[in-house]
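Lay summary. Proteins are chains of building blocks that fold into shapes, and those shapes determine what they do. In this project we predict the shape from the chain. Here is one chain we studied, written as its sequence of building blocks.
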Amino acid sequence: MLRLEGVESGYGRTTALFGIDLHVAPGEIVALIGANGAGKTTSLMTVCGNPRAKAGRIRFGGDDITNLPTHAIARLGLAHCPEGRHVFPRMSVLENLQMGAAFADPAHFHGDLERMLERFPRLRERLHQRGGTLSGGEQQMLAIARALMSRPRLLLLDEPSLGLAPMIVRDIFALIERVSAEDKVSILLVEQNAYHALKLAHRAHVMVQGRIVASGTGAELLADRDIRAHYLEGGAGV
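And here is the predicted shape, written in a compact code that computers can read:
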């Protein structure tokens, strides 16, 4: 589905990623964990074409997307749900969802809209409310629903639990698991809550200073003493 091969990337003269190799198979959830500044968000942004990879190759569904513009990558079936949610604050919930469907076949819109409102019933209650007036958890639901309206094959999720109460975090991760299972969407997940990420993921990678330093199944990394010490028991990467 998605494959990064020796990818280097950064901003201006600053290199943030050094020879990243990873892949996401169809229907798989792959997590990236690590401390702030490790390169996790840059990895997702580089897949989307901003910043552009300085070296290496990025392939999606058999296509080389390394040098494609972001809108062309989106049209191939890749959706990005960014850190901080970034809903359109002055637009209603409905208008936000319409924006998400911009690249999808219009014939599917009403069916997809109803599916999102069934999956996220809180959004149905607030369909004509401005996005900026929603709670943090509701905005995260809207951001995920907006991304899914594009009918993606791969969903990039960046810090979906950031700033949310523990009860809402559990709801969000249950929704992510449901989306993966029911929609057959592959997911590349960046998450500060390492425990929830590793519990959910089929496979995961640990990033440190722009490099992948450990990989394994979610269960394997949860059981690793070093990973637990650094990311699950009060370490810098939690």
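What the prediction tells us: The mean pLDDT is 92.
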